[in-house]
Specification:
Blueprint: H1 2-20, H2 28-53, H3 60-105, H4 125-137, H5 144-153, H6 158-164, H7 170-184, H8 187-199, H9 209-228, H10 237-247, H11 250-259, H12 269-290, H13 306-313, H14 340-343, H15 347-356, E1 377-378, H16 409-412, E2 414-415, H17 416-425, E3 445-453, E4 456-464, H18 475-480
Antiparallel strand pairs: 1-2, 3-4
Helix pairs in contact: 1-2, 1-3, 2-3, 5-7, 6-7, 8-9, 9-12
Length: 492
């Protein structure tokens, strides 16, 4: 009797604990665990009741006392299970709605993905192998004979001959794929090919950004390929840095040596790779400003061969200087800063055009971003780091914006020295800043806030800061109440 009463009371206590927990603290996973726990308790109650009723220990009065207790416990069990089931279904529905909304937002039509035709090249075999496996072999809707048909269509030359020897049947695909893999899955040849590229790099004769970038890219491609073939190159820094140093022009090599702090230690390829990135970006910037792509290295010469070098240089030649081309209208008569069509655009459209063409928002040149811009000119209206043509009209202008078609970059941009002189010439009031140094703390008040959103109640804790100019919400609370949001750039 006592055992049955304790188990029946456990069901009532379980429901009380469930009702005391806020709905926002429940998830579909915790509800599933709680449902299993309540079912286990009820099975024990039912077993104890049946043993008690069918035993000879109870008389008619005891049976009349036990049955109402059992019925009331069963009603509590049903009510609690029903509440948990409804909340579980609501949480599952909310998750499905979020997934459907995310799928609708990202439902874009992507171009078809397919592999190139394999012509029997060892270097292209790894790419063909992985692409054909992902697109055709792992496609469960294709039968083996269909896979063999596509394999015939995607091979040429010697590879096509190997595949065509197998009959176009379901059993023929595995044989054809195995024969093709055995023929071209030659790790030794693949590694040797990458080593041949690494040890036969083309030397860079001139201080040219594109040539240095190509040298860096070839070395990194070889390193990536060797790592894909499980070749341990963690101790190859001395070899790689030496090979790269022998291919660099004299000025770049001297600059690299100047960046080495400890001349007695072996240089790391990570450091040299970072230096090469900065070097070719600098050369590209200089080339864009000067309008020249290649700068020949100036080699030192002594007095003995000075006359000989002069005689060799005194030869007729013709220089071709490229004209500045407007990136917006493709005209070679003016620059982008003097383009009337570009000036007629709205400020937001100008910024969008420059970002899409990988152009600098400060000097309007292509090939770098504003964080790497070497120009000392800023906006002559607000003196911030952007071009005057990109100045937002929401800020009160400090100077008249040019309306003529004959303005240039020099007329629009202003140097930092000019900006400082202009600021010095304006009348300003002296402002004295003071602060108090105290060890006393400040206690801010909080409040419990009930949020009602999409038929759901959420109880959260709010911090009351009367001096704040904006309101904020935590990322976890935003996800919990499924609040719609959008990304934006703002200064806090």
């Amino acid at each position: 009797m006592d055992k049955f009463i304790r188990l029946a009371d456990a069901v009532t206590e379980f429901e009380a604990d469930y009702n005391d927990t806020a709905q926002t603290d429940h998830t579909k996973y915790t509800l599933a665990i709680q449902q299993d726990e309540l079912k286990a308790i009820w099975r024990k109650v039912k077993t104890a009741y049946e043993e008690l009723v069918h035993s000879d220990r109870l008389d008619a009065t005891g049976v009349a006392t036990v049955k109402p207790k059992y019925k009331s416990s069963y009603a509590v069990y049903l009510r609690c299970m029903s509440n948990m089931a409804e909340l579980h279904a609501k949480l599952v529905k909310n998750d499905n709605d979020v997934e459907d909304m995310s799928a609708r937002e990202h439902n874009i039509q992507l171009p078809s993905c397919d592999t190139d035709v394999f012509k029997g090249d060892y270097l292209s075999w790894p790419t063909f192998r992985d692409m054909f496996t992902a697109i055709y072999i792992r496609n469960k809707r294709l039968t083996p004979v269909e896979k063999l048909f596509h394999l015939n269509q995607k091979t040429e030359g010697e590879a096509r001959e190997i595949v065509s020897k197998c009959h176009l049947t379901n059993d023929g695909f595995q044989t054809a794929w195995k024969n093709l893999s055995d023929r071209y899955e030659n790790k030794r040849i693949l590694v040797n090919t990458q080593l041949k590229i690494l040890f036969n790099l083309e030397a860079v004769e001139n201080e040219c950004g594109s040539s240095i970038k190509k040298l860096q890219r070839d070395i990194n491609n070889c390193i990536s390929s060797l790592q894909c073939h499980q070749i341990d190159i963690s101790n190859w820094d001395a070899i790689i840095t030496y090979l790269c140093s022998t291919k660099l022009p004299e000025t770049t090599l001297a600059l690299w040596e100047q960046t080495i702090e400890n001349k007695t230690e072996i240089s790391k390829w990570v450091d040299m790779n970072k230096f090469l990135s900065q070097r070719f970006q600098t050369l590209e910037t200089v080339s864009d400003i000067r309008g020249s792509k290649n700068y020949p290295t100036t080699l030192p010469h002594n007095s003995n061969n000075h006359m000989e070098s002069q005689q060799k240089r005194l030869k007729p030649f013709q220089a071709s200087v490229p004209k500045a081309i407007c990136t917006f209208c493709k005209s070679n008569e003016h620059k982008l800063s003097s383009c009337q069509e570009f000036f007629n655009l709205a400020t937001a459209d100008r910024i969008s055009f420059l970002k899409n063409n990988n152009s600098c928002l400060n000097c309007l040149s292509s090939g770098h971003v504003v964080s790497r811009c070497k120009s000392s000119f800023n906006c002559r209206i607000c003196h911030l780091r952007h071009h005057t043509l990109l100045h937002s009209q929401t800020v009160p202008p400090k100077a008249t914006f040019p309306t003529s078609n004959s303005f240039s970059t020099d007329d629009i941009a202003s140097s930092s020295a000019q900006a400082q002189a202009r600021r010095d010439s304006t009348n300003t009031n002296n402002v004295q800043a003071c602060f108090v140094n105290t060890s006393k703390g400040v206690l801010l008040g909080t409040a419990r806030v009930n949020i009602f959103f999409k038929n759901n109640n959420f109880t959260v804790r709010a911090l009351i800061d009367s001096g704040s100019e904006a309101s904020f919400i935590t990322e976890s609370l935003k996800r919990k109440i499924n609040l719609p949001s959008k990304r934006m750039r703002a200064q806090v």
